[in-house]
Design goal:
The complex is a heterotrimer of chains A (about 180), B (about 160) and C (about 375). Chain A is mainly alpha-helical and about 180 residues long. Chain A contains six helices and five strands. Chain C is of the alpha+beta class. Chain C is built from 15 helices and eight strands. The longest helix of chain C has 29 residues. Classes of the chains: A mainly alpha (about 180), B alpha/beta (about 160), C alpha+beta (about 375).
Chain lengths: ~180, ~160, ~375
């Protein structure tokens, strides 16, 4: 009986200790976040994020042709640090390339949820902005913003590769001025 | 274009001789485009004859049309032949007309295996079921699609 | 060379099937998020490393184009019709316009027929180059990703000069084409084609004759001739299986009856033959463009055509980069068609994919699959 009680007491003491450590760690992380977000570390972290925007390998419709052209030899998105990659766990950019059908929207949301934070979204093409040419069709979603937050919109049907390059520069500018712990 | 339509007429004549009552209508729309209207219950026989005797070895496509004012669906099988270089341009249209309230047709998958996806699409877009097709399932639409088949005429667009 | 009617039997592979456990297969879902799938999903059933069954699951880009065409004016539908195969847009556009012209009884002037062929052939090259670059990605050959995309820009620039748009030209309209040849186009085109023909030799050296590629593509994904015909395969997929079918020869449209060109055909039916056919076709297209620029007659480029679809039915088809693209159109006298049926080559070639993949290794899947040049947007419409 008494032995049990002692164990209970010990557990309580341990739990209290853990709680206070948690509180302190929480406070500490708050302090760290504040320091990072005001100090030079922020620009270093953002600098790292700016030049490693790896898009996830999902193509929603026909704008993928211009995305391909932009990744190719003449436009070469890799000079902005944009390198299409197979694994979505390592990617931080989602380019919604064109029309998003109802069937694809579900998968796109699943992919977005699985991507690591911070993650950014570019809605490429008129269809991903508002439905475009297919705005009154029975099987499409009118715009990517209906189910994922969008950072940059690129108008055009399809947008020229130069427009996509500009969108990436705009996104980089946005990241440069954003806080490190802002997104979640 | 004034060009002879002998090949098409010969093709139709052969079909008419073999199936005098089953083929209700036969005509040449324009050069290299003959078409026949077949009774739905005789479709498989006519198609088998076309494949085995007249060399129509593949189907180019299956189309459905909703004639809602006449309360019927029309299913059109386009088929052609790759055997002879001279007759490769001929595309035969086999039409069948089925009532709109009982949309059921016989599948031609046993004759031309290529119609598999086409018939699935027609099923999905018009709600016509094909007897004898092994996989009458959705092809393009989402699994939880609950509206009417979208290519039917009663489905209207907001901008229409 | 004999035509293999059946895929060659695979080397003895230890099966996961045991006497008491029964068949043990694993179902793998490839796509739509996958570097080797594009906008579609493949449901693959595996026994060990061998593909037992493969079923494509399309529809991720189904946008209801057939329905949209029913509610829009025929001219307004032209950009919509182009979108399914955006890298090969003018061929689809051509098929659509031919259906309208067939119903209207309008025949385009001779010069516009040549101009249509010119853009179609440029699109064919652009489409094959895009396919080749993605094939490079699939095989992990990064050079072959960069080179074709860079050379594709040569033709994109030309097309932009001619039509005003990079890839979505909307160039062909009922009764003719929108614009005439710009000044200095022919010289520029011939210069670029001469450069491109030299590049094709280099492609041969680095890719098509590369043992790393040939060993991965030869004998992989065999589509026997009889099966290719029965399932209705078309385009380079059919020609790779030993059928010399090409609508430009079999049913000459536009100016093709006046032009001289060959149809590359291979008998093997494997991924390599489908790949090499596309390379040879690019060479033929170069020849065609040079001929068109030399032979093109003077004259008007457009004839007045009414914006109306007369009552009647039309069935038109053209040879697009992936094969036969056909339209079945029903008109009832208004400015909108009653029904537009749009059958694309990719949709027909979709039936070939399970046949190709069955019995092969999972590691060969990307090669066999992409050698068909299945463009999901075109199949789904």
């Amino acid at each position: 009986m008494s032995a049990q009680k002692t164990a209970q007491d010990q557990d309580d003491v341990l739990a209290m200790l853990a709680d206070s450590i948690n509180v302190w760690v929480g406070k500490l992380s708050e302090i760290v976040q504040r320091i990072v977000d005001v100090g030079p570390i922020r620009s270093v972290v953002n600098w790292g994020r700016i030049y490693s925007l790896w898009p996830v390998n999902i193509t929603t419709a026909c704008c993928s042709a211009e995305f391909g052209a932009a990744s190719g030899a003449r436009h070469d998105l890799e000079r902005f640090g944009v390198l299409p990659l197979g694994s979505l766990r390592q990617s931080d950019l989602l380019v919604a390339e064109g029309t998003i059908t109802k069937k694809m929207a579900k998968r796109l949301r699943m992919i977005y949820d699985q991507m690591a934070i911070p993650r950014y979204v570019i809605a490429m093409g008129d269809c991903a902005i508002s439905g475009g040419l297919f705005h009154d069709s029975y099987s499409i979603v009118n715009g990517a913003h209906e189910f994922i937050p969008v950072d940059v919109y690129v108008p055009g049907c399809p947008p020229r590769p130069e427009a996509l390059e500009q969108a990436i520069i705009m996104l980089q500018e946005k990241i440069r001025h954003s806080k490190v712990y802002e997104r979640g | 274009m004034i060009l002879s339509q002998e090949r098409e007429q010969a093709l139709i004549k052969k079909l008419k001789d073999r199936f005098p009552s089953e083929i209700t209508e036969a005509r040449v729309v324009r050069r290299s485009r003959p078409e026949i209207l077949v009774k739905p219950e005789n479709l498989v026989e006519v198609a088998t004859f076309l494949r085995d005797e007249l060399g129509m070895d593949h189907a180019n496509g299956v189309s459905g049309v909703d004639y809602n004012r006449e309360a019927r669906f029309e299913i059109i099988y386009h088929c052609s032949s790759l055997q002879n270089k001279e007759t490769r341009d001929i595309v035969m249209a086999i039409k069948e007309s089925i009532p709109r309230n009982t949309p059921k047709a016989r599948s031609l998958i046993s004759v031309w295996p290529g119609v598999d996806n086409f018939e699935r699409e027609t099923f999905e877009m018009f709600g016509i079921t094909f007897d004898g097709h092994p996989r009458m399932e959705k092809l393009f639409l989402t699994d939880n699609w609950d509206g009417p088949p979208p290519l039917r005429k009663e489905v209207r667009f907001p901008t229409d | 060379m004999t035509v293999p009617e059946k895929p060659a039997p695979l080397a003895a592979v230890e099966s996961s099937r045991t006497a008491d456990s029964g068949p043990q297969t694993l179902t793998v879902s490839v796509g739509p998020q996958h570097s080797g799938s594009g906008h579609m999903r493949l449901i693959i059933e595996l026994d060990g490393d061998i593909i037992v069954n493969a079923a494509p699951d399309p529809g991720y880009v189904h946008r209801g184009i057939e329905k949209i065409c029913e509610v829009r004016n025929i001219i307004k539908s032209i950009p919509v019709i182009e979108r399914p195969a955006i890298i090969d847009s003018s061929n689809l556009n051509h098929a659509y316009i031919r259906a309208i012209e067939e119903l209207q009884g309008v025949e385009a002037p001779v010069r516009s027929q040549y101009l249509r062929c010119l853009l179609n052939e440029m699109n064919r090259i652009m489409s094959h180059l895009y396919w080749l670059s993605i094939f490079g990605v699939f095989l992990g050959h990064t050079t072959m990703f960069m080179w074709p995309l860079g050379d594709r820009e040569l033709f994109i620039d030309l097309a932009e000069k001619l039509t005003g748009a990079r890839i979505t030209h909307s160039y062909i309209v009922p009764g003719g084409v929108r614009r005439d040849l710009p000044q200095g186009f022919a010289d520029e085109a011939i210069k670029r084609i001469a450069y491109f023909e030299k590049r094709l030799v280099e492609y041969d050296k680095i890719f098509f004759n590369n043992p790393i590629f040939t060993s991965r593509a030869k004998g992989v994904g065999v589509l026997p001739r009889s099966e290719a015909i029965a399932i209705g395969a078309t385009g380079p997929t059919l020609r790779g299986s030993g059928v010399d079918a090409d609508l430009r020869k079999d049913e000459p449209y536009a100016a093709y009856s006046k032009l001289d060109f060959g149809i590359p055909t291979r008998k093997e039916g494997d991924s390599f033959s489908r790949a090499i056919i596309r390379e040879e076709e690019m060479l033929e297209s170069c020849k065609l463009i040079k001929q068109i620029l030399k032979d093109i007659p003077a004259g008007p480029i457009r004839r007045k055509a009414p914006i109306v679809v007369p009552r009647g039915e039309a069935y038109s088809r053209v040879e697009s980069a992936r094969g036969e693209c056909s339209f079945y159109m029903v008109g009832e006298g208004g400015d909108k068609p009653y029904r537009v049926r749009f059958i694309t080559a990719s949709f027909r070639n979709m039936s070939a994919i399970p046949v190709l993949l069955k019995g092969g290794h999972m590691a060969d899947m990307p090669t066999a699959w992409w050698s068909v040049d299945y463009w999901p947007v075109e199949a789904d419409r």
